[in-house]
Amino acid sequence: MKKIGSLLLLSVFAGSITLGAYKLFFETTNYAFVNSSGEATTFDTSYTPTSAKGAGINEVDFTIAAEKTVNAVVHVKNMAISSGNPSNIFDFFYGQGGSERTEIGTGSGVIITPDGHIVTNHHVIANASKLQVTLNNNKSYEAVVVGSDENTDIALLKIEPEQPLPYLAFGDSDNTKIGEWVLAVGNPFNLTSTVTAGIVSAKARNLGRNQSFIQTDAAVNPGNSGGALVNTNGDLVGINTAISSRTGSYVGYSFAVPSNIARKVVDDITEFGSVRKGMLGISAIPSDSRYAIENGISDIDGVYIGGIEEDSAAEEAELLEGDVITMVDNIKVRKFPDLSGYLTTKRPGDKVKVILKRDGEQMTKMVTLKEVLTIQLPVLGLTVKDVSKKDQKKFKIKEGVKIVRVPERLSGYGLVGKILLAVDDEPIEDKEDAKALFGEISRYGRTSLTTLNEKGERERVIFQ
Q1: Burial letters for 122-137: b for 16+ Cβ neighbours within 10 Å, e otherwise?
Q2: pTM of the model
Q3: Most buried of 136, 209, 336, 393, CB within 10 angstroms?
Q4: Tens digit of pLDDT for each residue in 299-311?
C-alpha cells in the first residue's frame, strides 16, 4: 500500500512538471489591453497559418528557372597565340625574338537559338586565335565569331550542332525590379553550369564606361563572364560581365549587361554586321562634379544638359543647355546611365519621346535619333567629329577633326570648338584616323596637339 502511494505521488509530481513545462514553453499567451478609461480596446488578430519553412527565400521556387537555364549555358575557351621572350641570347640576336606560346582564357556563353548562336562577353573572346565551346553535356565544338562590340562588351558566336540545342529567350530587362530574385548561371573555375541566387541590388549602374549595368548580389566568379542572369521564370534578363572585387573573386556585388542591350547588339550584328547606335547628341553635367556643386545643380533629379552637339538630334529637336531630362518614352530618368542605357537599345531613325523641365516648366519633345557623329579618343578622352563642309569653308581646311567635348580635367585648356590637325606631329585626316593615332600614344609620356582656332591661328598644346 505504501508502495502504491509513493508511485501515485510520483506520478502527480511528474504530471505537474510536464504541465508546467508545456505552459511555460509551448502555449501561446493571450494578452488583453485596456486603456486608462477602463474601456476594452479591440483589435484584429490574423489567424492565417504561417509556412513551416518560414517566409522569404523558402517561398521562392528556383528549380524551374534552373532546369530551363543550365543546359543553355556553355563553357567558352579562348586560345590566343602570343610571343614569349627569347629563350637564349642566340634567339635574341639571330632568332625570331622569342618562341610562341598559347594563352588560354575561359568564360561562359548563352545559347540563344537552337541552331547554335551563342551570346557572350567581348572580353571573353578578344584576341582569340581559336574558340572552343563546351556544352553542359561535355560535348565540344569549334566556334566562330559572328560579330562583337567592345563598347557594350557583347559578342555573338556560332557553332554547328548536329541537332537543335536548348536555348534561352530574351526577357525585358526594363521590367526587372530592385529586390527581384535572379539566378546567375555560368561556368566558374572551369566547372559545368553552376547556379547561384541573389536579388537585383540596383539598376543603371555606371562603371565608368557610360554603360548601364544591372547590379546583383548573386555570386559571380572567374569564368562566369558571359553567363546568364535569369529571373525566376527562366527569362534571360542579363549577361553577367563583371564583379566588384579587390581579389578577383566574388565578394558581394556583380554586374550584368541588360538583356535589352544585348538583344539589340545581337540583332544589329545579325542584320547589319555591326552595331548601329542612335544618338541624342548631348553632354550631361555629372551631379557630383565640381561644376554641379558650385552651380547648385547637384541635387537635380534628372539629366542636366551641359551641351548640345551641332547637327545632332538634340539640336534639331531644339533641346537647350540647362534643360533637365526626366523621362524618355516610359523610362524614368534620374541619372545619365538611365538615359544612355535606354538609348543603347535604339537605332538611328528611331523616335523617342523626351520629357524635360525648362525654367521650371515641363515640356515634351519628339526626337529622331541620329547616327553616331562623334567618337571619344583614347587616353585624353577628347570627343571629336569629322569636319563638316561648313567647317572646311570656315577654317579653310580639308582634313582634321573638330573637338566638340572634353573631360572636366581638360576644361581649362579652351579646346572645344577648335580643329585638331595633328598629334605628336602626325597629321589627322578624320575621326577614325584620330582614334588610331591616339591609341598609340603613351599615358605616361609627352603628347603634343596641334590645333587651329577660329582666327586661323595654329596652336600647340603639350601634355606631360
Answers
A1: bbbbeebeebbbbbbe
A2: 0.70
A3: 336
A4: 888 999 988 888 8
